[in-house]
Amino acid sequence: MVDYRALAELRYQIRLFLSFSERAARSAGVEPQQHQLLLACKGLPPDSRPTIRTLATRLCLEHNTVVQATDKLEKLGYVRRERNGVDRREVLVEITPSGEALLAHLSVLHRDQLRVGGPALYAALGEILEAGARPGKAGSRAGSAESSR
Looking at the domain covering 4-147, what would its CATH class be? Predict the structure, then answer.
């Protein structure tokens, strides 16, 4: 059996955080996708390179959408494109000092918001994971198979 109330609560808590994030980005003078691009660029795993393709994958966006966001951030002075010194075909997106300052400001706001809303988000996720671990509930193999019949 699917616990719709738990799923709805999780979705609501995620949406609250995303809504906060969108407002924070806009009040700082950038669009939410631009903020996400800065964060994705800064937070890449150590074995990843900040190419448009990698950033598009990390953001679940189309290549051309990331190119447009990068263009706008470049015009604002928050990123720059640099050619790889070894493979000149590869273009890397680098955050400028201004972009670093903006990202640091937004990250503090987001951490503060998570301190406030995080417990409810954690509880909502915990409820779903706990329900999935109980026999006959959504998330367990038997429960999922029964509920799909």
Answer: mainly alpha
